[in-house]
Amino acid sequence: MKHIILRNRVLLTSLLVLNVLMATRVILSRSVHPLLKRPPPFPHFAPKRFPKSHPCPLWSPSFSFCLATPHKPTTPTIPSSLSTRSCSSLSATAMAASAAADEALAANPLLQDFDFPPFDVVDAQHVRPGIRALLKKLEGDLEELERTVEPTWTKLVVPLEKIFDRLSVVWGLVNHLKAVKDSSELRSAIEEVQPEKVKFQLRLAQSKPIYNAFKAIRESPDWQTLSDARKRIVEAQIKEAVLSGVSLEDDKRDEFNKIEQELERLSQKFSDNVLDATKKFEKLITDKNEIEGLPATALGMAAQTAVSKGHENANAENGPWIITLDGPSFLSVMQHARNRALREEIYRAYVARASSGDLDNTAIIDSILKLRLEKAKLLNYNNYAEVSMATKMATVEKAEELLEKLRSASWDAAVQDMEDLKNFSKSQDAPEADDLNHWDTSFWSERLRESKFDINEEELRPYFSLPKVMDGLFRLANMLFGIDIEPADGLAPVTFQLLHLCSILVH
């Protein structure tokens, strides 16, 4: 009864909570996406299976053989009994392989009709076959849409959104897993199918029938009857199509598509290098004097990192400790470590990530800038900044004007803040007082704040435990938006057991 009432009266979405709050997001196309109607999300997650495929699926390596099996050879070259046995054996083997491929695809979680992304069951082995099967299905949907398209909302926007939505959700699921559970196998799988995904996206964005249908909507007598939101969607789709190269001639479009493929590859490589460089850095500390000033929670985190790296007896009090470039570890050193040499070392390592050796991004940055300029020129823009601003409510000139306003308005206050830090550090007999550097400002800002307001992070921590913070957050959401947020653990799969699922109830 409770589920029936909720189904009629509330909207359920998922929140993943880690520390304060981690919310999953659904990646949508660049236009404004309406919410697609999905089955009721309340039953416990149970992936649905696709119906059995045809015995000779197009994606099967034995497809051509399947087509040939009904035809009998007219001139046997081997004894008929042997031929019958051999063909039967070969046919059985091929059909078994085809059936196995069918079963694997039918069970692939990326191809299920899910309400919540099945984070707990997707892994690298599902990516190649799952994405390729999905792209093949969406390619067929796109061809059917192009064949039957009409310049109306229901015959154009609705089916187009379904194509956008399915690809965005599935690819977003895969990318999210890579962000939180990165592995060489997952990287390899994504790297292999990414060009195929980009090719389909370009094919979709450069579809002349769809582009012309959107233009026909804008030029129709019914244009003025559309809501502002729908007008915005149509205008945005037309603009995106132009920025995706739909108006380019064949040779220029081919060049544009090559640039897009390379930009996608380089962007992925850039991100991977930064991630690998971040993971690569570790500083083992055995002398507690070197990390004097770090709060107990930071010491505990550093000791736990040491345990995970093989130092089984590490603890917060006696160490050893491992400092990394992950955000919490980096910030704790910058804000609290009294050892200035350590702060400088960690700071320099952080800002120099992926700038040398096998993970050097310098050449990649140069290539990205060069390709972006080439792309802009193909689209008749002076530079890539103009391309970026083409879909925004601003211009390059307005953006620069705003930046200058912010700079001029904040300059005097910033100069005064630095003077305050220098004076305070001098009062504490700091040798670096006359030469404060990037690795000093966070440390002395914290000390100044503690001195002025008598606030200590560790003393405040018990008042801001996770349950109290979450309760306060949910109460605030109720006050501001009139929604209720309740625990919903077990309703849908999560990436890690530390994550908690919540439901948002809109009255």
TrEMBL record:
<dbReference type="InterPro" id="IPR001567">
    <property type="entry name" value="Pept_M3A_M3B_dom"/>
</dbReference>
<dbReference type="Pfam" id="PF01432">
    <property type="entry name" value="Peptidase_M3"/>
</dbReference>
<keyword id="KW-0862">Zinc</keyword>
<feature type="domain" description="Oligopeptidase A N-terminal">
    <location>
        <begin position="131"/>
        <end position="253"/>
    </location>
</feature>
<keyword id="KW-0479">Metal-binding</keyword>
<keyword id="KW-0378">Hydrolase</keyword>
<dbReference type="InterPro" id="IPR045666">
    <property type="entry name" value="OpdA_N"/>
</dbReference>
<dbReference type="GO" id="GO:0009507">
    <property type="term" value="C:chloroplast"/>
</dbReference>
<dbReference type="Pfam" id="PF19310">
    <property type="entry name" value="TOP_N"/>
</dbReference>
<comment type="similarity">
    <text>Belongs to the peptidase M3 family.</text>
</comment>
<dbReference type="InterPro" id="IPR045090">
    <property type="entry name" value="Pept_M3A_M3B"/>
</dbReference>
<dbReference type="GO" id="GO:0006508">
    <property type="term" value="P:proteolysis"/>
</dbReference>
<feature type="domain" description="Peptidase M3A/M3B catalytic">
    <location>
        <begin position="333"/>
        <end position="490"/>
    </location>
</feature>
<dbReference type="GO" id="GO:0006518">
    <property type="term" value="P:peptide metabolic process"/>
</dbReference>
<dbReference type="GO" id="GO:0004222">
    <property type="term" value="F:metalloendopeptidase activity"/>
</dbReference>
<keyword id="KW-0482">Metalloprotease</keyword>
<keyword id="KW-0645">Protease</keyword>
<dbReference type="GO" id="GO:0046872">
    <property type="term" value="F:metal ion binding"/>
</dbReference>
<protein>
    <submittedName>
        <fullName>Uncharacterized protein</fullName>
    </submittedName>
</protein>
